[in-house]
Design a protein that fits this description.
Number of helices: 12
Radius of gyration: 20 Å
InterPro entries: AraC_lig, AraC_XylS_family_regulators, Homeodomain-like_sf, HTH_AraC, HTH_AraC-typ_CS, Tscrpt_reg_AraC-type_HTH
Shape: globular
CATH superfamily of the largest domain: Regulatory protein AraC
Distance between the termini: 15 Å
Keywords: DNA-binding, Transcription, Transcription regulation
Strand order of the largest sheet: 4-3-6-1-7-8
Protein name: AraC-like DNA-binding protein
Length: 301
């Protein structure tokens, strides 16, 4: 974008990640205003509206709606007039400010345990970025320019990795007293429990069985897991299974019943009930919605 510009974001996304490649910008959410320099990464928790501006006192000129459609504040579409290619959008092909933007429609797609430590608006400054974060951003930017098979899946995974790494960096920089992912992997007991769950998500895990495999008491495991991860072991297991299910629903044509069995749900009905509670749609509806949204998600990125 070239100034003046202001985006009124009303897409109701559960979470948005913005990486500023060039220039500068301001983000305003719930009265809080934060500045972004080149190399900064911002995470905004939804679904409430927020604004992205070229300067603190800028007026909004474009609105991002719930269907990711873009209009003027008055309601006129600008999707065609501001389109600059398959994956690029703005008011200038070589604008002063350039950023990568990725959104997660539903909180279940992010994993509540990943973002539990985040405020409404979190920013990682260039000073707190590291080589790994920069490399992930470079890979994401490079993949956007590809037109090869598997592009959507690659973008999804890179965005997930970038989000996780930003959460880690923010947690460390902010010195939060609450749980964070860095603590989870620094605690060898919690890391071992997480590895067991990740290696066999369909297993009939209980806190007692996890504790037995980790050679500690049930109470010790439960307390340290909750302190490091932010949720109880069985809650994490349920969320992890649902996250894996959401990925398979969008990447495969496997039936919901098969996915339910493969991931350890007691029945297809139990899987459907849990999935709808987390994602707001049945597994079948979620798959259809994801198929319809895939081109829009690539363009938004």
């Amino acid at each position: 974008m070239d100034p003046p510009w202001g985006l009124d974001v009303q897409d109701q996304a559960a979470l948005t990640l913005m990486l500023l490649l060039e220039g500068s910008a301001w983000i305003e959410a719930d009265g809080a205003l934060m500045h972004l320099d080149a190399g900064s990464v911002a995470i905004v928790r939804g679904p409430d509206a927020y604004r992205v501006l070229d300067r603190p006192d800028a007026e909004s000129s474009v609105r991002i709606n719930s269907d990711q459609g873009c209009t003027t504040v008055g309601g006129d579409s600008v999707e065609v007039s501001m389109a600059l290619g398959v994956s690029t959008w703005g008011n200038s092909l070589h604008g002063q400010t350039s950023m990568l933007i990725g959104t997660y429609d539903a909180e279940g797609a992010v994993g509540a345990w990943v973002t539990a430590v985040l405020p409404r608006l979190a920013v990682v400054s260039p000073d707190h970025a590291d080589d790994r974060l920069k490399s992930l951003a470079m890979l994401l930017d490079c993949e956007l320019g590809q037109q090869q098979q598997g592009k959507t899946g690659a973008l999804d995974r890179l965005l997930d990795l970038l989000l996780l790494h930003v959460v880690r960096r923010w947690s460390e920089a902010a010195h939060q007293g609450g749980p964070n992912w860095s603590d989870a992997h620094r605690d060898p007991l919690v890391a071992q429990a997480l590895s067991l769950i990740h290696e066999a998500p369909a297993a009939s895990w209980t806190v007692a069985e996890l504790a037995r495999r980790c050679f500690v008491s049930r109470a010790t495991l439960a307390a340290r897991f909750k302190a490091a991860v932010g949720v109880a072991p069985m809650s994490y297991l349920s969320q992890w299974r649902l996250t894996l299910a959401s990925e398979r629903l969008t990447a495969e044509q496997t039936t919901a019943a098969t996915i339910a069995r493969d991931l350890g749900f007691s029945s297809p009905f139990a899987f459907s009930t849990a999935f709808k509670k987390a994602y707001g749609a049945s597994p079948t509806s979620y798959r259809r919605q994801a198929a319809r949204k895939t081109p829009q998600l690539e363009a938004a990125l």
